[in-house]
Amino acid sequence: MSADDLHYLPLTVLAERIRTKTVSSLEVTQTQLDRIARLNPGLRAYVTVTADVALEQARAADEALARGDYKGPLHGIPIGVKDLAWTRGIPTQFGSVVYRDHIPTEDATVVRKLREAGAVLLGKLQLTEGAYSEHHPEIPAPVNPWRKDLWPGVSSSGSGVATAAGLAYGTLGTDTGGSIRFPAGANGVTGLKPTWGRVSRYGAFELAATLDHIGPIARTVDDVAAILGVIAGVDDLDPTAADRPVPDYLTGIDKGIRGVRIGIDKAWNEQGTDPQAATAVSDAIEVLRRAGAAVVDVKFPDAVQNNLDWIPLAGVQTAVAHEEIFASRKAEYGPVLANLIRTGQALSGTDYQKIILRREDFRGRVDRLFRDIDLLIVPSYGVAAPTYATLSRFIEEPTLAERLTRYTFPFDATGQPTLSLNGGFTDDGAPVGFQLVAAAWNEPLLLRAGHTFQQETDWHLRHPSL
Q1: In 207-334, which ranges are continuous DSSP H helix?
Q2: Is the pLDDT score of 395 beyond 80?
Q3: Chain mean pLDDT for the chain
Q4: What is the pLDDT confidence band of residue 215, given thresholds at 50, 70 and 90?
Q5: 206 near 315, Cβ under 8 Å?
Q6: 0.90 cut: is pTM over it?
Q7: Which residues pair with 421 in a beta bridge?
Q8: Is residue 239 a contact partner of residue 209, using CB atoms and an 8 Å limit?
Q9: What is the pLDDT of residue 93?
């Protein structure tokens, strides 16, 4: 098998080949490290490559398999982790110059679970400063492998780029305002923001604690299902991680969606949305309808105030997360993250409480919507395939930021699981994503619907030429 045949295999397909000893973890890992050495200098997805650790873990995975000790679908699979999850003895820099010398003495819970499942850590993936909206001025951003002028998504930019470029079989990202779904959409891959509380946040640097979600980015829905099954679950180190059973997300993923009610608010989806982004949604609806889903017209609760509240809400929580270090090292922060912290510091307790109450009201209204539907479909964002030139117009076009975040902010506020899928390409070859949303804890149905879509289309099988 050539390297070109190997590096874009779906994780779940590779897992079966490793299990049956058609290929060894060591062979796969070395191939990945060689590819990273060749491509990462131009793509900048990895901030730290852990070659020695990866090779040691790959050898251990092969030895365990030879003893008959197979740990499951991540056994021997090379994975990348967003560089805000602690890794014992390995730098974890949080996209920041402030934490440049930070070396944790323990693993984040998600990293520990990956290790225990036999996964191989290729390295740590670049992100925006503090997991907010901009890379630190001193840290070059990852490059979208489809085209250099395309936005790579934030904040899990390295995770999206590495997955799309064949530099990992799966990655971990985090999502506070869209940071799994933005890079998944921008890089043409699959991303899952689980229900808040489904995955432990212990050992992951915070942006905004009640909005932060950890989840997988991979090439297929089956791949993200396999990763979620490993990282989900209760954790004594994080009391907010729900004490609920973790399903086998791969079992039943192929049962189809006949009779599943998918809601669509056509007016909301198309209001100010680029036509190609709206088309990705309408095309996806037709695919799902042909697969047996029932499409239901709905009116989504007004999300304008909720979305306006996101920055002050996140600002207060970010100010808390950075309280000690910002006071002494604020000059080292980039201007965008520093402004968010100052916004939080300036907000009164009364105004913060009003935001909390509005958030609970909005969450309740969205929950009620799912009495009548099983899933909701929306664009990834209102701007199809943003370029850096597009994003440079924020000052001239005040609505641009709102269009970018209109369909992501709401589901961080509600904490509902949301799946980002590639729904096609623009006329000039850039990926265009869309999202499916489910009620809390209904990841199994969400993944079934995404699997069905990918069985009927081939967008997820297309890759950039590198």
Answers
A1: 221-231, 266-270, 275-290, 304-321, 323-329
A2: no
A3: 97
A4: very high
A5: no
A6: yes
A7: 434
A8: no
A9: 98
C-alpha distances in Å from residue 341, one per residue of 214, 223, 307, 327, 441: 22, 36, 18, 11, 31
Strand ranges of the sheet holding 190-193, from the earlier edge strand across to the other edge: 46-49, 120-125, 78-82, 170-175, 213-218, 190-193, 418-425, 431-438, 375-379, 261-264, 294-297
Task: Work out the burial of residue 2: count CB atoms within 10 Å of its CB; fewer than 13 is exposed, 13-18 middle, 19 or more buried.
Answer: exposed
Phi and psi for 334 in degrees, rounded to 5? Answer: -70, 160
Q: What is the pLDDT of residues 153-202, one digit of tens each?
A: 999 999 999 999 999 999 999 999 999 999 999 999 999 999 999 999 99
**Token couple for 243:** 């004490």
Query: How many Cβ atoms sit within 10 Å of the Cβ of residue 126?
Result: 28
| pLDDT value at residue 394 | 81
d(CA 387, CA 30): 34
- 155: preceding bond cis by omega (within 30 degrees): yes
Q: For domain 3-461, say whether CATH 1.10.1740.10 is its number.
A: no
| CA 282 to chain CA centroid, nearest Å | 23
Residue positions annotated with a catalytic role:
82, 155, 179
The full DSSP string for 163-199 is HHTTS-SEEEEEESSSTTHHHHHHHT-EEEEPPTTSB
**Domain map (residue ranges) of the chain:** 3-461
